[in-house]
Input
Amino acid sequence: MSEIAAKAPTRPRRRLIASRLVPYLLLQALIVIATILGLRLVPPDDPDDYAVSEFTLRENGAAQPVTLPHYTSSRYSLGDPPLYNGTFNFRSGDAATAWSVFLPRFSNGVEVAVNGVVVMDSRRDDTANRPDRNTPAIALIPSSLLRDGPNRLTVRLFVWGPLKGFLDSVYVGPDASLRPAYETRALLFVTLPVVFSAWQSLLAVILAIMWLMRRREPVYGVLAAGMLVGAVQAFVPAPVPPAPYPRLAAILLASAPIESALVVVFAVLFFGWRWPRYGLLLFAPGLIILAVGLFAGQPVPRITFLFLGVPTVGLCLMLLAFIVTKAVIKRQDAASFTIGCAVSIVLTCWFHDMLSVFEIVPDERIFVTRLSYSAMLVAIGAGLTWRFARALNQVDSFAGQLVARVREAEERLKASFAREEERARAAALANERTRLMRDLHDGLGGQLVSIVALSERGHEGATITDAARAALKDLRLVIDSMDDMGGDLMLALGSWRERATAQLRPHDIALDWRVATPQGLPLHPELRPWHVIQVVRILDEAVTNAVKHAQAGNVAVTIETLDGGQGPYGVISVTDDGRGFAPSGNGASQTARGLRNMRSRAACCGAVLDLSSDGSGTRVRLQLPQVFPDSDAAGG
Amino acid sequence: MSEQGETGEAITILLVEDDAPTCWRLQDALVKAGYEVRSAGTLAEARSALAEAAPRVLLTDLRLPDGHGVELIREIRQRFPDTEIMVISALGDEESVISAITVGATGYLLKDAFPTDIATTVRDLVAGHSPISASIARFIVRRTQGAAQSSAEPSPGPVLNTAKLTPREIDILWGIAKGFSYAEIASHLGLSRQTVPGHIKNIYRKLEVHTRSEAVFEAVQQGLIKL
Output
């Protein structure tokens, strides 16, 4: 019991693996059965009516009757090839139609003669020399060669080991009857591999580009390399002994094991496994074959290939099947299932070919591994491209999400910015309001209180009128200053001139207005209403002093812009021709208080007040700052 | 002594002001100057006074117990185009004055103006000189600037179409806004001093919006210009 309890945690895991493994294996079994059934259909039906099967084989000096299809022993010399002699009947009634001789399958090369005249030699056809392709051959028999009645058909079978020679049934008959069977085989075993190889080389280019652009993903590069090797193998002509470049055969032979090892590497990377330390050993057989092919003459490389290369391919396929099965159990996704099924098909085909090579199951010697293998690679390549496109889509949607998020953030930022701006505006407004209240309190409020006090004490006439006029003037000043001057103090001074003129007229005092420089005063973009109020109050005070205390007959206002080398600044001077006063006089007098007021106002907006007075008049010189201060803290 | 028009008759003034002391004050100043003054405290009184005869000059407050002075100005402008119209304002603020100008008033009179200034202003008005204050000129030129900068936000305050003003008229307004006298402006701009009042009269006419639909049209046009 305790043992069972200890194993309990691993049990659900095992159950999970089993529940995934069993259906997968069943599926693969079904696929294997389907493949076997499918392979039965692969050799197309041949026109059996025209079959020539009874031959006399002359080999090694001995003659014996044989029935095609027939295997001959493996040999390494092209001299004295096995010679098949047979006869077929030609009826002169058939003379109207052309006759052909059709050989559906032979290995490795044939030379066909009719009545002693050679009509075909397959060794000049590159694809026919590939033992892994089941290339058929057909040749028209010149009608002049045909005799009424029995004709002699001779087939020389060239064999280059280590595979045994093979000759399938030979068909002789009207070309119209044989040609369709030939075309079917040519399509299946010649055209289709070319199509697959072309496809493979295209995918190799695409995957190579992907890998070049994304070095972080070697999976594309590995598959591209595998496909490239396959494509090269498919298009390089097979050397026929005596080949012009026998070394080339080494590359051809080494290609299959290297290619299959590359596919294993691909699978390992694709399913996200760590590459095992001794994994590179998988490439050893391919490299050995390459080395043998480069340094040893035929037929040693071919023998090496048969006993090293072919098993390597099988081993790689089995490794592939193992890797994929593990991936299926772990991931349960469409990609691993698809690759798993493809591997099962290829593996079945490989076993089929092995059985054929070693004559365990005699058949028509149709090799299908290469074909199914190419198809599998194409499927994998297509799958990868699909995955790449899907990744692009994901990037797109990610980019879309990013754009949406950025927009969202931007909007939030905008909103918060607007809020901040609103807050700043509100603060500025409150600030302005505070100043306005202070101004109204200092000026208008005091004056109105003074009016109340005067009228309560029963004062009549001029005093109250003066106080009320002063209050009105102040109110107009405040209202006027609130207007947007656009930084031009001249605009404020313009309406002040009107008010001052009106104020001076009853006293018969002329206001002499002089603007020394054409533009008047420099522009001050930072000018705020409270600056205007302070400046105009100083001027008001100067004019009021001239009227009330100096008994002046003339008041002159001079406005000019000076430049002391550090930028322009404005100067406003108010000069009267009154009797003047002593600036350093008694600090308690009204004049002294007014003076103090003017100085503090000037200081609080950064201006310099200069006052001089003597018996011939008073001069108030207000030198404006180059930049008005933002707050009146500078004043004090 | 009495002020007389070209026909030799006394110049009639209709004074519309609801505050009695202010009314008395203005009336005293005008009567003393020799004008024939009728006064009204409400719009209704003013209309009944108009039924008798057209005044030469209308002086009206804007806030009246039974309506707004702007209505009265518009009525008189249509019925008696020769009548000179002025607004009586306590502060001379552009809000009230500009709205009166757009319906046909030519300037304003401060309620606390000295009696001599009141008489002088009316005399100038009858003589064809429409006075314009620095603050009103400033308001108008700031508007022309605003239109030129094609700011998206409409400027605060009453609607004012400055599109018809010529650059010279705008220059004159700038001069007035900056406190220059007519003589100074004339010499700066190379004009004869006597032509400046005429230019100012033209400015008033151009700022006047003749009908309600025209006002709407010009507002739209102004909006289009701003686009």
Notes: Confidence is low (pLDDT under 50) at residues 1-7 of chain A. Residues 76 and 536 of chain A are 122 Å apart (CA to CA).
